[in-house]
């Protein structure tokens, strides 16, 4: 691999610290329950910094990174994370519960899973599309994207949840998803010289999770995503 000098490494670290807004605490200890250090949002960014510093990093998979943080700190954390991913051309895949609209609109793609792990939506951050899929025509709209989806999921019977899934499958977002997956599988099969379907989880496998939002920024051009 390419030999990196200490000056190059130091420059990269300083650049990432600046990107994540951590330069002013660069000389501060991280801390623990016995030693006061950086605050919660900064502490989580330290972990992200370590990931971004690795030159081989191509993807970041982060779960519940805003838990326990204030709305202001949560927004700042995700803004810094996005900035780091975009500047480093790294894909970010983030799982969140009950994010604000401000945070949601920082992402390019949104995946909504139902309480039994079924895909309810995947596509761009389109409030009108989500409303059309998650709410029936006679249902009152809610104040936020998160509330719109959560209230729909919590109050629906199995029949209504099936109808929600059906509305997604009839939507423009679903047609785009199917087209992109077909292209990705075709490219992946050529690159790997094998059927991509053999790499995927069995279709009957259903994770048991609560309603969850999964967000992503675009992957580098050479990356393939399988779903």
UniProtKB/TrEMBL annotation:
Domain of life according to the entry: Eukaryota
Keywords assigned: Transport
Tagged with keyword Transport: yes
Protein name: Uncharacterized protein
The species this protein was found in: Phaeodactylum tricornutum
